[in-house]
Amino acid sequence: MAAFSNPWHLAITVLAVHGIAPLLSALHLTGMTDSPVAIATALMISAAEVACIVLVFRPMEGWIPREHWTNRRYARIDRFYTLLKYFGVMPIFTYLMLQPFVYWIGTLTDGSHGNGPDALVTLAQLAPVLRDHDIVQFLIYFAIFDLVYYLIHRLQHAVPWWWALHSLHHSQRQLNCWSNDRDHYLDDLFEILIITGVAFLIGVQPVDYALLIVLGDLVQIFSHANVRVRFGPVLDKLLVDPAYHRLHHMRIDPERPHLHNCNFALVFPIWDILFGTALYGEKAHPCGVDDPAIDADNEKGFFGQQWAGLQRFARALAGRSAAS
Questions:
Q1: DSSP per residue over 295-313, as a string?
Q2: How many Cβ atoms from other residues are within 10 Å of residue 286's Cβ?
Q3: pLDDT of res. 157
Q4: Could you tell me the CA-to-CA distances from 289 to 126, 221, 252 in Å, in that order?
Q5: Which of 4, 138, 167, 307 is packed most tightly, with the most Cβ within 10 A?
């Protein structure tokens, strides 16, 4: 009865029992993926993130916009990307494809039903003093994750074939609170495979992994928002804010052509500071990409953007495209 006394748990229970469980049964995937309650919880968390965008970040763009637009026609497609990712692509890929595949591989190899071997190393093994300090362990894992994301982000800009995909994210002229998930799905796949691999190697538990992703997403969603917000001269060295990340999305300044290669960190600016890619004190610049072939993404729909990214990717692999 306790579950039904809490609206959050009630919604999860109803979704799990009347939505997820029947679907898994119809697809013959019961027992081959996460439990219906776990999947329902993940979907509810996604709904909460979207609600945060709708109820908090989007109104802020109206109250204190960084840029004033006569209309948001370029920004609208980013909302579609976000909703499709949270309620379509992620659940289908994770629960209906990836986890059943892992389960199947596990039954073929060692009969473990997808559980597989233990992690190669954990923080508790490396530093036993941390064994009873869950919050400290979580913060260290968060820092490790963000460092990996930073390194991935540097590669997305430095490797020609990866930039060919990642450039879709940067083609947006009207950077806004929905833009974080404006990505090419092949780019997302490469990123997910690396991050989940690191999570396995260092022994991040599923609950901690989910929380790491959610918190990281919230910071990144806000950092893309079209708002006049800075965290101040101290806090903006500790956490990425919209003013900081907007400089990463700036169009190339012909007089300073390398200025835009900055502010790659997604959550903690410390990585930019340590690796010499931090840029502070610069005025806001228009966002987007100067390359006309990439800027043309703004005139395309979802499928057109994905196809254009694949074409750039193929050309880059063939050596017919330059890196950013």
A1: HGGGGS-HHHHHHHHHHHH
A2: 12
A3: 97
A4: 44, 20, 7
A5: 167
Ranges of the chain with pLDDT below 50: 1, 113-117, 321-324
Cα angle 229, 257, 249; round to 5? 30
User: Tell me, what's the pLDDT at 114?
Assistant: 46
3-class SS string, 54-107: HHHHHHHHHHCCCCCCCCCCCCHHHHHHHHHHHHHHHHHHHHHHHHHHHHHHHH
Q: Is residue 30 part of a domain?
A: no
Q: What confidence score (pLDDT) does residue 4 get? A: 53
Contacts of 233 (CB under 8 A, 6+ apart): none
Measured CA to CA, the distance from residue 165 to residue 183 in angstroms comes to: 8
First and final C-alpha spacing in the chain: 57
**Residue-range definition of the domain harbouring residue 297:** 39-76+115-317
The answer to whether position 178 is within a domain reads yes
The confidence score (pLDDT) of residue 5 equals 57
Our count of domains for the chain comes to: 1
Cα(43)–Cα(274) distance, rounded to whole angstroms?
Answer: 36
* Distance separating alpha carbons of residues 157 and 59, to the nearest angstrom: 32
pLDDT in tens, 178-217: 999 999 999 999 999 999 889 888 878 777 888 899 999 9
Look at residue 137 in the predicted model and tell me its pLDDT.
85
In a domain? residue 271:
yes
Classify each residue of 196-226 as buried b or exposed e, where b means 16 or more C-beta atoms within 10 Å of its C-beta: eebbeebbbeeebbebbbeebbbbbbbbbbb
